[in-house]
Amino acid sequence: MWTPQEHAEIRAQFPILNQEVHGSPLTYLDNAATAQKPVRVMEALNRCYSDINSNVHRGVHYLSQRATDAFELSREAVRKHLNANETAEIIFTKGTTDGINLVASGMRETMRPGDVIVASEMEHHSNLVPWQMVAERSGAELRIIPIRDDGTLDLTTLDEIITPAVKLVAVNHISNTLGTINPIKTLIDKAHAVGAKVLIDGAQSVPHLRVDVQALNTDFYVFSAHKTYGPTGVGVLYGKRHELEALPPYQGGGEMIAEVGLLKSTYAEIPHKFEAGTPNIAGVVALEQALAFMNEVGVESIAAWENHLLEEGTKALLAIPGLRIFGTAPEKASVISFDIEGAHPYDLGVLLDQMGIAVRTGHHCTQPIMDKFGIPGTARASMAVYNTLEEVERLVSGVKRAVKMLV
Amino acid sequence: MSGIAAKQQEVIQDFQFFDEWMDKYEHLIELGKDLSPLSEDLKTEDRLIKGCQSRVWLQAELDGEVVRYYADSDALIAKGVIALLVKVFSGETPKDIAEADTSFIDAIGLKEHLSPTRANGLQQMLKQMKLYALAFQAKNQSE
Q1: Structural domain range at position A347
Q2: What is the pLDDT of residues A3-59, one digit of tens each?
Q3: Is the bond preceding B37 in cis, omega lying within 30 degrees of 0?
Q4: What is the DSSP letter of A153?
Q5: Which residues contact A59 (CB under 8 A, 6 or more apart)?
Q6: Best label site of A227, A403, B74, B82, fewest CB within 10 Å?
Q7: Within this chain, do residues A148 and A249 fall inside the same structural domain, yes or no?
């Protein structure tokens, strides 16, 4: 674990945190929604526009070559970060949602009535609605792995759910609402045993833990740069080469073609086949710096620090009368979703905001979880590498103050 | 000064009394707690005000010459805000409500302290109250 001095040096790389909100120091605990960016990421964005801005993969000129090199350097950094076999398996997207929709739109073509898609009760809407749309259009059936009261997947149902009719299993690695770290290796093996493909929504996991796509043997893995200390508007879809090759292109346009005739075209090889149009060049280039930041401070150290905050925060919050935590899985990331008996989560969020504390309130794009627990929403505090124990304590006393006013 | 203008002035003064926004919120919460709850059978889909993050129900009745508003919410701050509006507009004539100036909302600075989605909810509350008043006004004129 870092010394206070070491941690202060990490935190100092995030200048946005040094500000007051409504007269109190900002306490940013909405990291599961988006993480703040270290200076080096912002500098990379700036450098990209001030030094090398040019379109990638197109020009023979100097700047275009430099931009292309920086862009491809980032692809290699992502490959290494996920331990993918080759850079062609890394597709840059707009974000996790975009990556899921890319795979869903391709799969829609091959799904038939009688085929089954499996998701879980704790999916973010972005890993649920695209599959509902595929099911609706193709006549395939959507099956749901239920969750138990502690916010873990009910694995006893797997034999019934993952049958040979299943073509795809799409689950999240870590729940954005409950914090549960799902046993995805078990799910992946189970899916492969019946010949199904697997897509893992890693939006919440890449910021918190080391992901090795080859060890997991997953077919697809998606995440967003903005939750991993990188810029908004960039995401990554990892796919095994033969899976990506089998998928039809997502969008048509420039960059994704080999030969274009007036009536028919042939498509480029992966990854370009899925990268139609000018990409978010600066965002992709800056993502390399975000991953470098994570690797330099150490993904394992980040996880250990966040776990420490999670444990202390959980303990202190549970001591507040009437407070319930949703998601108490033994394997959990630094997300605490809670409500207070007799208080609406929105009221809690508004009052905490007045104290400078940023938490998310509502259903967190997981309405089925709210339905399961019969609540309108929760307040959610989510911690990142730069958060301190003092900030967690500020949250706890803020909640206590709000409870006094509301209940 | 009309009844509405006088009540608005009162609300502005109430809010000026508190320096800290936390205290203003506390005041709103108290107003919310004091608002008599709507009976469950009135909490219907058609009485919900659209555009609020929490659920806010509004009911209006014509009582002789004046409109009576009844409201509720599952969240206390939203309930406080609608209580404030009920306090200002309830017991006034449809014409006065429909024509009322609502700048007191700006004067208490509430809008700036609500997130854009919540400020939108506040606008929707005001709009719905005025719509009820206009409907009663139209009904009165046609009779």
Answers
A1: 4-30+298-406
A2: 999 999 999 999 999 999 999 999 999 999 999 999 999 999 999 999 999 999 877
A3: no
A4: B
A5: A65
A6: B74
A7: yes
% of chain B with per-residue pLDDT over 90: 55
Is residue A336 within 8 Å of A325, Cβ to Cβ? yes
Phi, then psi, of A281 in degrees rounded to 5: -60, -55
pLDDT at B115 over 70: no
Question: Chain-centre distance of CA B86, in angstroms?
Answer: 4
**Are A304 and A231 members of one domain?**
no
Question: CB-based contacts of A290: which residues, under 8 Å, 6+ apart?
Answer: A37, A38, A41, A225, A228, A229, A230, A231
- 8 Å CB contact between A127 and A119: yes
Choose among B21, B26, B75: nearest Cβ to A346: B75
Query: Are A347 and A333 contained in the same domain?
Result: yes
Q: Are A273 and A304 found together in one domain? A: no
Tokens of B69: 């508003």
Please answer yes or no on whether A346 and B22 come within 8 Å at the CB atom.
Answer: no
> CATH number, domain at A113?
3.40.640.10
The minimal CB distance from A354 to the residues B25, B54, B78 is found for B25
User: Which residues in A94-196 belong to E strands, given as ranges?
Assistant: 116-120, 141-145, 166-172
User: How far is the C-alpha of A233 from the C-alpha of A226, rounded, in Å?
Assistant: 7
Does A316 contact chain B (CB < 8 Å)?
Answer: no
CB contact under 8 A, A347 and B74: no
Q: Which of A400, A394, A403, A378 is nearest to A178 (CA)?
A: A378
Same domain, A369 and A384: yes
Residue A12: which CATH number?
3.90.1150.10
How many domains is chain A built from? 2
Single residue among A251, A269, A296 that ends a domain in this structure:
A296
Residue A239 in any domain: the answer is yes
In this structure, which topology does domain B3-142 adopt according to CATH?
Answer: Sufe protein. Chain: A (3.90.1010)
- As given in the structure block, the two tokens for residue A337 are 């979703």
Copy the structure tokens of residue B37: 């709850």
| pLDDT, tens digit (0-9, with 9 covering 90-100), for A156-169 | 999 999 999 999 99
- What pLDDT digit, counting tens, does each position of A166-179 carry? 999 999 999 999 99
Flag whether A144 is in a domain. Answer: yes
Domain boundaries, chain B: 3-142
Prediction pTM value: 0.92
